[in-house]
Amino acid sequence: MSSEVEQLADEIATVFRSTDVSDSSSGNLERAAQSFINSKLQGMAEADYEHKQQLLITTVDASLNSQVATAMSTAIAAEIVATVSEDEAMGVEHRKKILRHFLNRVQQRSMVYEEIIITARRVIAKDLASEGRWEEAAQELREIRLDQLHMQVNNNTKFDVYLDIIKYYAMAGNQDQAVLALNRAASVVQTILDVRRIIEYR
To answer: Under a CB-based contact definition with an 8 Å cutoff, are residues 44 and 51 in contact?
Structure first.
């Protein structure tokens, strides 16, 4: 492991030790993660996405270091995913490289990062769809495997994912897979209160 990763891991661990996490609902951990990521990106040229990409990839590696507590690791990972997904000026390839690196690194610990993995895959799928790569976008969302997750996923999120899978497969001309996703959406549609989304489904 590089000295830069070790140094970042030590900094993250220090932030965690100095953060009051006794009340998980206080948002202290999330704010600490956001502040840490912002401090690393501060002063970086707005369009220097190569450097930003490398920094965030290194930070992913650092957050997964054994000296970083799981709670802080997940908070840092969530902030990285949020940062790249909200940066509209960041190129699709830069964003995908960062998110793919995260997904590859957490494969063996996916249970801990399930919520963040869902977000990351939805961002990648959206980017793929923006390039007209409809089949790949749908397959990306299918990798979430909503019925096999350990965490409880609310039905609104499930429904949104199924709707996107339906749309992407339909755009790809793969009607068989679109119908399969349509059937899965049917299992949760009765719990959806948003009329607009129900109309989109029907």
So the answer is: yes
Could you give the CA distance from residue 134 to residue 166 in angstroms, rounded to a whole number?
Answer: 10
Residue 195 has pLDDT above 50, yes or no: no
**What is the distance of C-alpha 159 from the center of its chain?**
17
Written as one letter, the residue type at 3 is S
Q: Which of 123, 190, 110 is nearest to 156 (CA)?
A: 190
pTM score: 0.86
Pull the structure tokens for residue 194: 């948003």
Whether the pLDDT of residue 191 is over 70: the answer is no
CA Rg value for the chain:
18
Tokens of 198: 């129900």
Residue type at position 172: A
* CA–CA dist 47, 38 (Å, integer): 15
Place of tokens 């923006």: 130
What distance in Å separates the CA atoms of residue 73 and residue 77, rounded to the nearest whole number? 6
> Angle at the Cα of 78 (from 4 to 31), degrees rounded to 5?
90
pLDDT interval class at 103 (50, 70, 90): very high
Which pLDDT belongs to residue 194?
Answer: 58
DSSP state of 27: -
